Amino acid sequence: MTKGIILASGSAYRRDILRKAGVDFTVEASTLDERALEAPLQQSGASPEDVASVLAEAKAVDVSARHPGFLVIGADQTMSLGDTVFHKPVDKEGARRTLLALSGKTHRLNSAVVLVRDGVVLWRHVGIAELTMRDLDPGFIGRYLAAVKERAYSSVGAYQIEAEGIQLMERVDGDIFTIIGLPLLPLLKELRALGEIDG
What residue numbers bound the domain in which 72 lies? Predict the structure, then answer.
């Protein structure tokens, strides 16, 4: 057993998932500039899955450096439509453009999780979910954004599938934990294998 488990993420969704699963952990979000780390990866042609994995690792290693002996969970998620990687919209117009781009198409959520202890990567996993949006009428998009307000800016796709965002979907292939941003079942399996949680 290590000294404990740290989640290196500021995501309230990831904290909630892990707490509800009964995992005992503390939180310390990494302060790394993710966009600065991501830019050279995209320029080098890294896949959206690889970008998510590298960012998850970088965050975990960053927090691990301050907490010797602790097991650190790093996580990151990218959303891709073909070769295009999306980021969280910053305003209503950005959210509208995202939804128009995704309308009638299948996009991917690439959710990476990494376990690090003392700066060493012990395990990594990328869960992938594919979501197909129905053809969205621009008027409906406007009404949807008016209803969800600022919540549209808290996720990369401008939707929360566990709330009103489910109305945007025609088909979902993948588990809810991967969609929310933490592939929980593979993570729990590895935490049991490492003796970090009861199994």
Answer: 5-193
Contact yes or no for 133/104 (Cβ under 8 A):
yes
pLDDT, tens digit (0-9, with 9 covering 90-100), for 62-82: 999 999 999 999 999 999 998
DSSP calls for 61-126: HHHHTTSTT-EEEEEEEEEEETTEEE---SSHHHHHHHHHHHTTSEEEEEEEEEEEETTEEEEEEE
**Count of domains forming the chain:** 1
CATH at residue 173: 3.90.950.10
pTM of the model: 0.91
What's the pLDDT tens digit per position in 5-16? Answer: 999 998 888 999
Catalytic residues: 76
Residue at 199 is within a domain: no
